[in-house]
Amino acid sequence: MSDYKIATKCVHAGYTPGNKEPITIPIVQSTTFKYQSGDAMGKMFDLEDSGYFYTRLANPTNDAVAAKIADLEGGVAAVLTSSGQAANLFAVLNLCAAGDHVVASTAIYGGTFNLFNVTLRRMGIDFTFLSPDCTDEALEAAFQDNTKCVFGETLSNPSLNVLDIEKFAAAAHRHGVPLIVDNTFPTPVNCRPFEFGADIVTHSTTKYMDGHATQVGGVVVDSGNFDWTQNDKFPGLTTPDDSYHGITYTDRFGKAAFITKCVAQLMRDLGSIPSPHNAFLLNLGLETLPLRMRQHCESAQKVAEYLQKSDAVSWVSYPGLPGDSEYEKAQKYMPHGTSGVISFGVKGGRAAATKFMDALRLCNIVTHVADCRTCVLHPASTTHRQLTSEQLEEAGVKEDLIRLSIGLEDADDIIADLQQALETATK
Ligand code: PLP
Questions:
Q1: CATH number of 7-284
Q2: Which of 204, 216, 281, 383 to mutate to test the pocket of ligand 1 (most atoms within 8 A of CB)?
Q3: Homologous superfamily, domain 290-425
Q4: Does the pLDDT of residue 289 top 70, yes or no?
Q5: How confident is the model at residue 390 (pLDDT cuts 50, 70, 90)?
Q6: What are the pocket residues of ligand 1 if the criterion is a CB atom closer than 6 Å to any ligand atom?
Q7: Confidence check: pLDDT of 144 > 90
Q8: What is the 3-state secondary structure of 161-176?
Q9: What mean pLDDT is predicted for residues 173-195?
Q10: How far is the CA of 43 from the centre of ligand 1 (A)?
Q11: Atom of ligand 1 minimally distant from the CA of 216
């Protein structure tokens, strides 16, 4: 649907019903698919025929939703995964094996940092983490001969750093490797990283894409722009795969090589598919994504401006605020809005922040963001409560930090709730 605007694609891309067919994407909740003869099925295993045979490898509901997201991002192909964690794992594992190296931004979701720094390190993949605001020299120096990709978040959770996608893409390409970006927070409605040179996009679809806290999911999307054959760094894509009929993915599948390998090897062996029912729920969220993103951003801007003026607040971080350290980059990469997530400090430190949380009536205390309900978290008293003040400092989590994800309630009601809780906290 390349000629249509994003709101139209959000409703229609990925599925075109025929005459007398359902208007919504049907939920094909079946593990397997029946064939009339062994030979007919055998042709599929020989890759002589296409179709479905087992949902771990492909399912019509999942495929339709993946095709919609590929279209929204401007990519050539996508695969849904059972979580955002699985999406980032698959994106990296599709390129890296033991002995390889990745350059990654430090401004990434804690779960992704742990996946990279602990689990993938244990599997022999090495990482160099560096600030997204590093100098060109520091970025250049981070590459090694065995570097296979660069990873960052377009708008980081929770620090709200905006990645300079063009700078990171140019550095990656100078070294013959792709840039992978996690685009969960802005969504393709606010930022399409392929337009700035990124090669692979991932998402936790659990967040805005779903938006109603109904399913945990992820997706990996390929731009189709990276030439895997330009060097010998990616033998998994450019030489025969003994585990899959000896095919060479780049020869056989061209621009779809990366996603085909991701499905044929990683999904086959690691099996992190979403249930077709979850893909259906995700699609309902996608249909209203542009409307919701607009409202999340408009309300978050209003709330951020209110917080900035409040005497009970020590600092506010929101890339939509002129003067914010990320404002200029946000204007370039996300000119129509960033996301609904704001972080701020309550005057009075940890004790006042705890009192503030207890006094909230409308905002929900949850370890979640990017939902139609306003979500709030005080990391120092919840997710990071085992850490001392010094350890919190080291982790870059201030004691007074509140992470606030503005929902779709009326902004005036959200502000009234924040105001009464701030008054109680700082009395
Ligand atoms: N990427 C980002 C930016 C996230 O915020 C999260 C979760 O919060 C993830 C990945 C992991 O996603 P999931 O919780 O769906 O596994």
A1: 3.40.640.10
A2: 204
A3: Aspartate Aminotransferase, domain 1 (3.90.1150.10)
A4: yes
A5: confident
A6: 83-85, 109, 111-112, 153, 157, 182, 184, 204, 206, 216, 218
A7: yes
A8: CECCHHHHHHHHHHCC
A9: 98
A10: 38
A11: 15
